[in-house]
Each structure stands twice: as C-alpha cells, then as structure tokens.
Amino acid sequence: MKNYTVKTEELNKIIELLYLVIGIRITFFDIKDEEMDLLSIRERSPFCRTNRPDESFNQKCIECDKKHLLEAKKSRNIQIYLCHAGLWEGIIPLYDKHGIYIGAIFFGQLADKNNPIENLRSSSYEEMKNIGNLIKYLSEYIAENELIKQSMQSWQQRLERYINNNLNQNISLTELSEKLGCSVSYLSHKIPDEFGMSLKKYIRLRRMETAKKYLTENKSIGECAFLLGYKDQFHFSKDFKKTFAISPAIWKKKHL
Questions:
Q1: For residues 244 and 64, what is the distance between their CA atoms, to the nearest angstrom?
Q2: Band of pLDDT at residue 1, cut at 50, 70 and 90
Q3: CATH superfamily ID and name for 154-255
Q4: What is the pLDDT, as a whole number, of residue 39?
C-alpha cells in the first residue's frame, strides 16, 4: 500500500458537492487498485448492497472493475461501461502534475434507462459521459493542487530528478540502475508499477511536458528538438503528436 498525502477536508467538500448536484457515488482507488477509506464515501447503491454479499457476485464485480480500470489506464482517458450486472459505471484515471499515475476515480452504480431497477436512479451512456467529463475537469484540479499526492520513495525521487536533468540524453535502464543503486531487473519491474508506464514512455512524457514549456517561451520547434536531444525536428514532432494528439506547431499557435 502506498502512502498518500491527502487534503481530506477540501477533497471531501468536492465529493459532497458533487453528490448534492449529481446524486451519484464517487470513490477513489489507489495505485494498488484498492479503495481508499480515508474519505467520506457514500455507501453503495441499494442494488449493490443487496447483491455484493454473495461471494460469486462480488468476485464478478472485482473482476469487472479490474478489467475496465486496466482499459482506463491504457487509454489514459474516461471509461464508461455497463458492469456485469448491467449498471452504468465510469472510471477516470488520475495523474499527478508530472503525468505519473496515482489512482483512479470511480463513479456510477446507476441503472440503464432501458432496463430500470426499482429504487435505483437510471442513466444513459450520454449522461454518464457528460458526468465523466465534469469529474475529469475536477480531477485535473485535484492533481494540480495536489489534493491527493503520492508520497514517493527515495529511489523514485532520484529517478525523476535524474531524468529531468538529462532529458537531452539517451537514458537506459542500465545507466539508471548504476545511478540509483538498483538492479536492472528491479527497475524493469518497478517502474511500470510505480509510474504507470514504461521507462521509455515516461521519458518521452517528461520531454513532451518540457517541450510545452519551451513552446510557450516562443522557442522554435527546431530549438525544442535540439534541447530535448532529438536528432531532428521530424522525430520530435512525431513524439509530440503521439503524446498530445496535436502537432507542436498548432499547439504553439494556440498557446502564444
């Protein structure tokens, strides 16, 4: 279990306000895919409270959550789905200011409008998507203001600092293992677990986040490519578009 620093009072205010406005259950899962119990989370829907004591039903719920959480992590975007019991649910993966995965927001447990359930609010894919987009905006506020912050271990802090100081270099697992005093095998297994992605993807993400900063300083695309260790601006632009789904030239025009 990871240690988290949580601004509980402010986060609970957000959850309570969302519940009053939207009327659905919202909960948080940590990096180990376990529900965090330090927040004022509303109880499950009447349907779930009735059925989850059944071991077989509960196991299907767990497997369903894991399946769709994995899809949310892969896409780094909202997942809206009907669970194994036919209820609408949504997942929003949560990332900190550095793009590191720190958990996920779950919401829903609503009946489908085409298959209503007594004493349970009904919804549709369109409504769930709109709710998800609203919560996603709030999740960005939560991350930016560090309302939930993972307490990083020393090797993680040193890895992040080393990468940030050497973004223009080709950094390998072997090099990192020597700098951090960890084995290559250890890092190859722990980096995806701790950072939610491979070393290669994390380095690319850090480079692209830094590229945004350079572009807002009105540096040219060629300068950005050089400063971040690319052999030419074509490969830099390709990585930028792969990361943000927009070319650096267009992004720059929109943010200057």
A1: 29
A2: very low
A3: Homeodomain-like (1.10.10.60)
A4: 66
